[in-house]
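Sample entry (407 residues):
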Amino acid sequence: MNFDAALDTAIARLHDEGRYRTFIDIERRRGDFPQAVWRKPDGSEAEITVWCGNDYLGMGQHPEVLAAMHEAIDAAGAGSGGTRNISGTTVYHKRLEAELADLHGKEAALVFTSAYIANDATLSTLPKLFPGLIIYSDALNHASMIEGVRRNGGAKRVFRHNDVAHLRALMAADDPAAPKLVAFESIYSMDGDFGPIKDICDAADDFGALTYIDEVHAVGMYGPRGGGVAERDGLMGRIDIINGTLAKAFGVFGGYIAASAKMVDAVRSYAPGFIFTTSLPPTVAAGAAASVRVLKQAQHLRDAQQLNARILKMRLKGLGLPIIDHGSHIVPVHVGDPIHCKMLSDMLLENFGIYAQPINFPTVPRGTERLRFTPSPVHDAGQIDRLVKAMDSLWRHCALNRAEASA
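Predicted structure, serialized as C-alpha cells:
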C-alpha cells in the first residue's frame, strides 16, 4: 500500500469538504485577555480579540490562581512524579478533590487529566462494577461519553435528544431487574441548550436507574457557588455521578467526577484511564483548587458573563442574524455550510482581528455548521460592538440568510 498517497487522499478530502482544521498560533497575555497576539504563518504578528475561548470567566489570569500555581511550583517542582497509585498523589491533589466534593455536595471526587478522560474512563468502567448494566445515552452527548459507552462492552440505548418520553419507553422495554444508568449533559455546548435534569431524574427514579451528568460547560458558570445547572436547580442530590472540567470556567486544566465515596473508590480502583495515567502536575492542581475556591464566592463574575451573553444575543438578533438561543451563555450563529463557515472565520480574523474558530462536522452535524461565540466578563462594550459590526458587514458582504435559526 502507498501510505503517503492514502494520507494525501484523507487530508485532501477534508480540504474538498471545507472542514480542514487550521491551528491558529496565538499568544495570550496576562492582564490583557481576551486580547492576544496572532503569530501569522508568514512570521508577522497582529493584535486580535479571542471570541471562541473556553476560559469563560477569565480565571486563567486570576491573581489568586496564579499565586497558588507559583507557590506550588516553588514548593514541589514541575511534575507529579508518577501515577496516583505510585508516588503521584500529593497534598495538592487531595486539596483539589476536597474542594470539588464540597462544590457538588458529594462525599468524594476524583481528578483526571481531562474531562474527556474522566467521561471515557468512568463510563467504560461502570459495567465492570455493575454486571449487565444498560446505559441510556442522549443522542447529542459529547464524543467522550459516546466513546466511553461504546467501549464498555455492555448494553447501550440511545434516546432522542432531551426526549424523556423516549427514554422512558426504552427503559420500560428492558428487563426491570437489569441495572440501568442514564447519561446526559446539563448544557449541550454546540447549541447551548439545557438538559431536562429534573424530568430525567424522575424517570431514573421510576426505573431504579443511576444518573450520570456531564456539567463541563456549566461548572463555575451556574448555581450560587458555581456547582453547575444541577446546583442552580437544586438537583445535585439527585445526581449519582457528576462530571466536570477544570479547563473551561475554572481556567486551568484537568477533569473530574464527584460522587459517593464508594463510587469514587470503585472507579479509581478499576478504571485503566485513571490507574495508568500520570497525575496532574502539583502546580496545575493547586491553581485549579484556587479557582474552584474563588468561584464559590464570585457570583459577580457569573452575572457579568450572563449580561454580556444577553447583550451579544440581543444585538445579533436585532440584525436578523440566525443565532441559536436557548438561554445559556453560549452564542452560536448558524451558517449551514462548511466552506462559508471557514470563509467567515478567516475574514473575521484577517479583516477585523476577531478570532472565532469555525465549528464543522463531525463536531456538529453536516448542514449545521456555525460560528460559536463565548462572551466573558472580560470582554468590554467596545469589543462587543466591534464584533457585532463585523458580523453585520460580513453577513451583508456574503449575502447570507438573516432569518433567525431558533429562539
